[in-house]
Design a protein that fits this description.
The complex is a heterodimer of chains A (212) and B (202). With 212 residues, chain A is an all-alpha fold. Chain A is 65% helix and 0% strand. The longest helix of chain A is centred in the middle third of the chain and has 32 residues. Helix content of chain B is 69%, strand content 0%. Classes of the chains: A mainly alpha (212), B mainly alpha (202). Chains A and B meet through helix 1, helix 2, helix 3, helix 4 and helix 5 of A and helix 1, helix 2, helix 3, helix 6 and helix 7 of B.
Chain lengths: 212, 202
């Protein structure tokens, strides 16, 4: 065996080898069984010089190596969290998708509630309650987009409630509770004026400024 | 020289998936760890089992080792915890010794108690090895013997040995290497294949 290599091994054993040389020798030591045997004897010599028991532990390395033969490599275990798998991505996207769904449901329910809580004849323009001394121009009216209005009105309260319950895992209990309460309240209001709601939904040319 | 560089080089290799580097770490520390565990259990075979368990636990936990402490310090803690758990689970009382004792009298007494539980074969082998090493040490030239004693017994760094022996660090490195080679040669003559169990690994 190369004497310089053995000299390096002895220095490495004592932690007295420069880092760059250590890296190279560590690579070789991990693969060269003869070098490992010499390394192990250096350890045994040290134990004997210190008065240690060399018989003890003599089989430990062999047993540990055998026991670890079936263990996965550490590199595999380390890389797993660094490289997100489909499952990891799914875990990431689930809350985001849930939040998006909850926001969509909330937007739909607000539109639906706006349509059902007001009589069909009521204007969809907020009236100013503040006293005004000077005459002001009539407020600009807002025209509800036809497609949005129709989509909102086609979502029955029961179906919406079922949807909210079915997707409850994506929303917080507070928002879920308030949404369901609002749905129940609006449904009771809708029972009183089903015709108006149906009339408003069925009129594609319904505009907010159509009412007097 | 920064401390623990060689162990860290091996640790990094293990962390990158090289099991052979872990064999080298076990070979280096198996005697120390087993001796450490013997402070808790009297039976040498049980101490070996616990040492093995400690190394296996260390391997499994090595992915989390960041090098904040020296590798042996980290391994030492694992070995102590494994030994304590083994003692508790097997309902055996530990040997009542201070872990950090450096007192030579206590160490001598501890070794005496260890020997009581050992098998005759183990004692013979231990004594033969020790006798061989001591004989090989005595046969060394004075400068080689001083260098290896200062390193292995006193735990001095090469720089400290160089200052002590009034010679360059390179000379110290060479002397320690030549001392080891002389002892190793003698050991291989006496125990051909007996200590070279690492060659069977893999």
């Amino acid at each position: 065996m190369n004497e310089e290599l053995d000299s390096q091994l002895s220095a490495m054993f004592d932690d007295e080898l420069p880092q760059a040389e250590c890296e190279l020798l560590a690579l070789r030591l991990s693969r060269d069984r003869a070098l490992q045997a010499r390394w192990g004897r250096y350890a045994a010599i040290g134990a004997a010089v210190r008065g240690g028991d060399i018989r003890l532990g003599g089989m430990v390395a062999y047993e540990v190596s055998s026991a670890l033969a079936s263990e996965p490599l550490l590199a595999d275990a380390r890389e797993r969290p660094m490289q997100p798998t489909g499952l990891t991505l799914a875990r990431w996207w689930r809350p985001m998708a849930g939040a998006a769904l909850a926001a969509s449901v909330a937007a739909l329910s607000i539109l639906w509630l706006q349509q059902n809580s007001l009589p069909a004849s009521a204007p969809l323009v907020a009236r100013s309650t503040a006293p005004s001394a000077a005459p002001v121009e009539a407020p600009a009216s807002y025209v509800v987009p036809r497609a949005l209005e129709a989509r909102a009105m086609r979502m029955p309260a029961t179906e919406l409630a079922n949807y909210v319950v079915a997707h409850s895992q994506f929303s917080t209990p507070v928002s879920r509770g308030s949404l369901l309460s609002a749905l129940m309240a609006s449904e009771s209001a809708a029972v009183g004026a089903p015709e108006q709601a149906a009339g408003a939904a069925g009129d594609p040319d319904h505009h907010a400024d159509d009412s007097p | 020289m920064s401390a623990d560089v060689s162990d860290l080089s091996l640790v990094r290799r293990v962390q990158s998936g090289d099991k052979g580097a872990f064999d080298a770490l076990v070979l280096k520390y198996q005697h120390k760890v087993t001796k450490l565990v013997m402070r808790y259990v009297r039976n040498p075979a049980e101490a070996e089992d616990i040492a093995q368990e400690a190394f296996i636990k260390a391997y499994r936990a090595l992915a989390q080792f960041r090098g904040d402490s020296a590798f042996y310090t980290w391994l030492y803690r694992i070995a102590i915890n494994t030994a304590k758990n083994a003692v508790v689970s097997r309902d055996r009382s530990p040997v009542d010794y201070d872990l950090d004792t450096q007192n030579s009298d206590e160490s001598y007494e501890l070794q005496g108690r260890m020997k009581d539980a050992e098998t005759p074969e183990g004692l013979v082998l231990t004594d033969e090895i020790r006798t061989t090493v001591n004989a090989a040490m005595d046969a060394l030239p004075e400068d080689l013997r001083t260098a290896i004693v200062l390193r292995e017994l006193e735990g001095l760094s090469y720089e400290e040995i160089a200052a002590s022996m009034d010679c360059p660090v390179g000379t110290v490195r060479s002397r320690i290497f030549r001392a080891r080679e002389a002892i190793d040669r003698r050991l291989r003559e006496v125990f051909e294949g007996g200590l070279g169990r690492a060659e069977e690994l893999g």
